[in-house]
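Notes continue from the previous slide.

Worked example: a multi-chain complex. Inputs as given:
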Amino acid sequence: MSAVLELKNLSFVYGKGTPFEKKAVNNVSLSINKGEFVGIIGHTGSGKSTLVQMLNGLITPSEGQVILDGRDIWSDPKQIRQIRFRVGMVFQYPEYQLFEETVYKDISFGAQNRGYTGEELDTAIRKAAEFTGLRPELLDKSPFDLSGGEKRRAAIAGVIAMNPEVLILDEPTAGLDPMGREILLSQIMNYHQEKGTTVLLVSHSMEDIARVADRIIVMNQGRLEMFDETKAVFSHGSDLEQIGLKVPQITKIMQALKAKGIEVPDDILTVDEALEVLSSLLKKEGKLW
Amino acid sequence: MVRDVAFGQYFPGKSLIHKLDPRAKMVCFIAFIILIFFTFNYASLGIVAAFTAFIIIAGGISFKFYFKSLKMILFVVLITSLLNLFYGSGEPIWQWWIIKLTWAGIHRAAFVTVRIICLILASSALTFTTSPTELTDAIERLLKPLSAIHFPVHEIAMMMSLALRFVPTLLEETDKIMQAQRARGADMDSGNLLKRVKSLIPILIPLFVSAFRRAYDIATAMECRCYRGGAGRTRMKILRMQTRDYFSFVTTALMIGGVVVCNILLTSVI
Amino acid sequence: MSFIAIENVFFSYDSTDGGQPVKNAVDGVTLSVEKGEFVAVIGHNGCGKSTLAKHLNAMLLPDSGKVIVDGDDTSDENKTWDIREKVGLVLQNPDNQLVASIVEEDVAFGPENLGVEPSEIRRRVDEALKAVDMYHYRHHAPHKLSGGQKQRVAIAGILAIQPQCIVLDEPTAMLDPNGREEVMTTLHRLNREMGMTVVLITHYMDEAVSADRVVVMDSGRVLTQGTPEEVFSQVELLKKHRLDVPQAAELVFRLIGRGLHVDHIPLSEGDCVNMLGEVLQ
């Protein structure tokens, strides 16, 4: 597997030389493979937002390097805008960035900046709208006339239309209701599988992360606390709780059952998995048939 | 970053200047500003400068913040003093091409420079040591007599205090929107003037939309908290003049007296 | 009589859309809230729960039907301010409900509007800030606080009005898990220790689990209501409307579907672990 993003001893210091100096990101080294779906978790102030903003050059690292496809993104500072097309970034509450007269024009903003024109541009826009589940008739509407969920999806489409190689989403489901959350998450999943784009998802919802991520980055006080397969990370339930993070309820239930001496795995992530494990156990005991 | 603005900031503290009644501070400040422009000789200029130095020291706030405010208007000071320097009338003491230097010009430049610096320093001292709420409170109470002629004193004060409350929030929001548009490849740092102005559209429109949305929310929240205009409102903090406030009036009055006496006794330099 | 009685309320945002019938945001709701109760109202965005919340303190008036608060009809204009004194409303975005540049002055805003004596305002402000555990931050600027802290200050701002009931419209939707927990702990403490009636509008199922009563809304109507146990054991109904169910409840529900015999559906981890532990040991 080849690495698409490599971070080498990456650090960022806020307010250097002032009394408010704070090391937001502290010596983080890791490498992300092409086509991976990586979850990023950590409580507020753990440095995860600063970390992801360094990946597309919105923040310049104080120390260390971000290597995209074998090249330091800051090797030519004049070309940093090009990096932002290749590493797409969806901020929290992205609907607040909509500004054009129509949804179509708004989605085209980034792609046009990248230099797309004519048919290429049109295809990129329509494809992006399709991935985010925006009906074609919405494209001619004003973005301000859409519902909250639709606005969110239009804003995400605006980043997807740039055809980034890596897509970073910071809390894309924040503020959505359970149904909206589920739909958006499966759209992101679907986009990832169809396009093979590397996706980095920052989220507070462990249930969401457990559903979609291959590997998880755990940040704590600016440092990289863990970076491992999803199941492995969540099997460290008590370690996660110590740094103020929770594991999905179902994982906790299964871990508590295991602590009681019942033979179940401690890395169950979904209700479906738990159901299968418990059903076969109950069948063995003759309580189910 | 847009957030690094020193001018208009408030630094909590316990100095004499902090503790003054904001109304007293306001009245003395206005008197002082007017006085600055009635300095016609070096003695009165000296009095004004000394008074400025006194409030800065008594306010107990680090000089570096005052330097920051000065730095912001450095350009204005330079231009105005240069203009005054070379546009004096009278006997030239040095001349080159169309530029001539006169004693009148030098005096004028010195006065303008010192006056602007005192003005900025005094305004900074006022905002550094007085919370926005205290300021608007003072304005509301000082202008209260005007409500007799149906001047909307309370409404204006409420607008000012809401504006002050939301300046930091809107600055933060501007920052976020700029980052988001940069992430979509917006180029705000290069190109000619027209291009740069155009590149502001993706920032200004979302900012306006969000400001309107906020305004609607704030109005709802205020109504939920039983706000129905200024009539019948009371305030938690009652302002009461104390000895130190009368002391500030006396000091200001003495300074005005000093400047007037200097102006009468000494000949004007400009 | 109930503290708040909602009687067959209909409401739509523009009821005169060219004579065309428009969808009602609130479509025939009858509901009551008792003094001292902790009621959670859950449902999707657009199900009418926020619109309903604004009816409880006369910010909105029903097109038809009645809302009676402590014996007063909200449509009686003479009672509007009395009602808003009795029922305080906290909104979703904590940034947009703090109006002053200093925490304690913001909390004072409500009582100042009511014309309360200065010394009494001071006492109420201190008390309210202590009740939400934000007294130490009384001289801070609101924009420097975390989301959870801001929302607690907003709650203090309502408490200082000394209402009998506090209605919160998705107060945690914009907060991180820590902030959510801070707000929820505060609300339960106010309910338990001060006897404050709480109506919590939310789309987080886990916040509703700890309420006395849960009301589920869908398309402007009440879908079902009851104790959390009664409501969340209707796993099928909730799933059909794509609402969240605690994973513990879903697991046991599906095991029952496969033939497991247990007497109830657990909502909490602890209950679920004990139940399955007993069955399996």
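Summary box: The mean pLDDT of chain A is 92. Chain A has eleven helices and ten strands.
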